[in-house]
Amino acid sequence: MQNTTITFKDLSISEKVLAVLEKNSFITPTPIQEKVIPLGITGKDIIGIAQTGTGKTLGFGVPMIERILTNPDGRGLIILPTRELAIQVDETIRKIGYELGIRTAVLIGGDSMFRQVKTIKNGPDIVIATPGRLIDHLQQGNIKLDRVTTLVLDEADHMFDIGFAPQIKEIMKKVPKNRQTLLFSATMPHEIATLAVEHMQLPLRIEMAPAGTSSANVEQEIIVVSRGSKFNLLVKLLGETDPGRPVLVFSRTKHGAKDIAHDLRNIGITAVEIHSNRTLGQRREALEGFKKHTYRVLVATDIAARGIDVKDIGLVVNYDLPEQTADYVHRIGRTGRGGKFGKAVSFATPDQKYDILAIERLIKKTIAIKSHEGAVMGARAEKRPSYRGGFRRSSSRPSYAPRTSSGFGAKPSYGPRTASHVGARSYSGSRSHAGARTSPAGARPGGFKRSGPRTSSGFGAKPSYGPRSGSIGGSSSFRTGGFRKSR
Ligand code: AMP
Asked: What separation in Å is there between the alpha carbon of 53 and the centre of ligand 1?
């Protein structure tokens, strides 16, 4: 993540923003920041192929903040798939923006609509929203997007995976055509390429690693295990892992997540679960507890886990393989961050051979495969054509040995900042923070006291709720045979 020669000073960032970055100890840009920030500041449309943990939030956050500082009537809109990610992105943006007078609003499902309307009325400069909830606000006339100057689509592939395509298309119709669009995605499926062609202006593609590449700092391993032996195997892995480092476990279903966490607690392991059946408050508590090491293990579903940025996760366990192959990359990207070493172990049942093949194709790597006692393998293996050229267990390979390898708003604008958006409360307004951004001459006459409603310009509407939003060992014979894909 570190680059030894370039600093943020080399990236065309204004003195004001540089000072705040420095104050927050952001000195050396990550590779994606190094590329995206200077281009983003020039107003170009950008497609960033980047995984979580690469520093992409400041990659788009810094240009967005710069643009608002230059044009205080403009607004930033960040669309992303999950509540957790929204909260995290908001934290990062506020670290830099708050001191500069930039105000944010987070519009996510599961949170009070009423409270969100209030924050919209305050006239935020930047709205961070999940698609479903933003549509709710739009439909109720709470917010208008006609002053959006920078639009960010974060984790775009995930938004499509979870079915937000219709909402995204709807939102694209409501933002001004003349805007900057920054799109970030870990992978680049066809739908996203199409979206880019239709809605972006000659976007520059910035790819730090081939789409789907998984972190180099993560040791990956697959263990073939029967369904009934997964829990014992998990317990064994926990026993082998540094107790000081948090462990993230992925379950395919909410019920599975709940059961795994419950069973771990029953044997005295501090564990908590996070999935969409839990309230926002419960999810926040779980995440905070996990960050503070109150819970050693966090069991999550893919959707709930998207925004998790917890430092120092030592082990990621895919208790179930992901439903969407691309999620494999997102999952294991939770460990091996910040230059630290991490491990990702995936449990595969004997019938999931083709799922493994799909993952290996995506990451363009072979993953070490072991098997766990109780995994039924072998018989069928002889009957089907060999997989990937036939993985015969060679006599030289011991069993179990790794096989290497502004305007958001719906009411008239308020506040001095804008003149008037008929029918819409935009998310701008006045501001008066000492040390706040200085407006360009004439842009904001008179310095803005942030008193009274700070609406006006950009984002602003009624309640609707919720988004729609044993012993490890065995042979590598898993690869030798043909296993049916059971899904
Ligand atoms: P992100 O990929 O944006 O979620 O960022 C992942 C983590 O890296 C966050 O905890 C950031 O605070 C941190 N981070 C981002 N950029 C930098 C940087 N240039 N220097 C140090 N840490 C950073």
From this structure: 6
Furthest-apart CA atoms within the chain: distance in Å: 81
- Fold for domain 8-207? Rossmann fold (3.40.50)
d(C-alpha 51, C-alpha 185), whole Å: 7
Give pLDDT, residue 389. 32
pLDDT of residue 5: 75
Give the type of residue at 205: R
Return the structure tokens found at 10: 């080399």
* pLDDT the model gives residue 214: 60
Mean pLDDT, all residues of the chain: 77
Nearest-CA residue for ligand 1 atom 5 is 55
Instruction: Verify whether ligand 1 is closer than 6 Å to residue 53 (CB atom).
Output: yes
User: Looking at ligand 1, which residue's alpha carbon is closest to its atom 17?
Assistant: 55
Does the beta carbon of 55 sit less than 6 angstroms from any atom of ligand 1? Answer: yes
- The residues of the chain scoring below 50 in pLDDT are 1-3, 210-211, 376-458, 460-487
Q: 68 by DSSP, 3-state: which?
A: helix
| pTM of the predicted structure, to 2 decimals | 0.59
Ligand 1 proximity of 52 Cβ (cutoff 6 Å): yes
Same fold, 8-207 and 218-371: yes
Residue 123 alpha carbon to ligand 1 centre in Å: 27
CATH superfamily label, 218-371: P-loop containing nucleotide triphosphate hydrolases (3.40.50.300)
